[in-house]
Amino acid sequence: MIKKLFLSVFFLMFLNLYSQNEPTNDRLDWFKNAKLGIFIHWGYYGVNGITESWSMYHKRISHADYLKQGEQFTASNYNPEQWLDLFEKIGAKYVVLTTKHHDGVALWDTKYSSLSTVKHAAVKKDLLSPFVNAVRKRNMKLGLYYSLCDWSHPDYSPVTFERVKNTKKFYPQKGQQKLTAWERFVKFNFNQLGELNAYRPDLYWFDGDWEHKAEEWKSAEIRQFLLDWNPNVIVNSRLNEYGDYKTPEQGVPIVRPEGAWEFCMTMNDNWGYFPSDKNYKPVAQIIRTFVEVISNGGNLLLNIGPKPDGTIAEEQIERLKALGKWIEKHKTAVYNTEAGLPYGHFYGPTMLSKDHKKLYLCLFDSPKNYIQLKGIQTKVKSVKVLDSGENLAFERNGGAAWNNIPGILRISVPSEKSLDPYVTILEIELEDKLVLYRGHGNAVELNM
Q: What pLDDT does 3 receive?
């Protein structure tokens, strides 16, 4: 009897622990419907146009020279209201700002380090607070990027480069002498996260978790600390898998990820402002990538790297506006939709409306002869080109309806003027909720 009672109590404790660690649908609903977010990498690295903190890691710049860039980090033309006006206009639903990269430089007035834009950079200002205020004025969610590693902190290891002498001057450690170096660093992380919690972010975007194990970072405790402060906050997967959603980057997943996810991508080859990097992705590639991602149930987190003065490069603005223009034309297929058809039904990305009564086919290229859709059991009411409104003729061909084999739906090709220069969307309206044929085919034993 005692053994059974112990097992019952243990099972209830396990269920409670599991429910605390698992994201609820309510917490993730906004994220799953967001479709587009803007990633902002802004820091000292833009002064010399070098690779973020990694330029130190790869010993392309000394720690001393890296930090010296703060003398020219002026943010003299920083206008977060203009940033957010642009992001909102193009249809972005959330933003993620690098509050502190691996270099340890904070964009807010942290009292746990003097390596901040308030105390160490030419700007001498808190850059995070006005950004948060601008976000809160709009129907957008706030994401804060925070690097778990701090390569400037005297208690942090490992680092691949030689730090400037006496980095302790940047990090006050009064009353912590009895702690080990690592205990002091973990305490420092919790302290800074406590400061960021005051901004009530909707999302934490962690990075750098690969440098230490979850037990060392205290990843589980960090997650619970954030949830205790804000039960609705969500966390990316870079907290040693203690997060709520996956974050593949730079290469679009070939296989549809399970659960909630986002794809983060640069416009050129660098995250921060890198003026010599002119290898910008064409607008067509950015729009196609966006379509591929949302058709697989994910969000695109598209990166920009503002200049040290706070302005955004024209090449980046041009691409943001082009994506926004395409989204505005096709917003019916973008928002309030979910991942589309499994592979094999249509040779291209697809989206499905939330009520499963509309199907959206994405044409990357100009179709020839006819457009083919396979395995659709539900009757089709109409097919039209989403932007132009052109109605397209369609007919079923082949199959054996009496044997539940639907054959193909053959759709006529849109007129040239209806084809979008980037991605054309066809809206298929169904008479009822979508039912798919997923069989392997068989002999038709009775012909009608």
A: 43
- pTM of this structure: 0.91
Label each residue of 161-225 as H, E or C. Answer: CCCCCCHHHHCCCCCCCCCCHHHHHHHHHHHHHHHHHCCCCCEEEEECHHHCCHHHHCHHHHHHH
CA atoms within 13 A on the CB side of 194: 9
Question: Strand pairing partners for 415?
Answer: none
State the pLDDT confidence band at 359, using cuts at 50, 70 and 90. very high
240 sits in the region (left: phi over 0; alpha: psi -120 to 50; else beta) called: left
- Give the model's pLDDT for residue 23: 45
Instruction: Provide the H-helix boundaries in 230-313.
Output: 283-295
Determine the residue type at 372: Q
Model confidence band, residue 448 (pLDDT cutoffs 50, 70, 90): low
Rounded to whole angstroms, the Cα distance separating 182 from 216 reads 8
pLDDT of residue 349: 96
Give one DSSP letter per residue of 357-389, joined into a string: -EEEEEESS---S-EEEE-B-SPEEEEEETTT-
Select from 309, 318, 300, 208 the least CA-distant residue to 262. Answer: 300
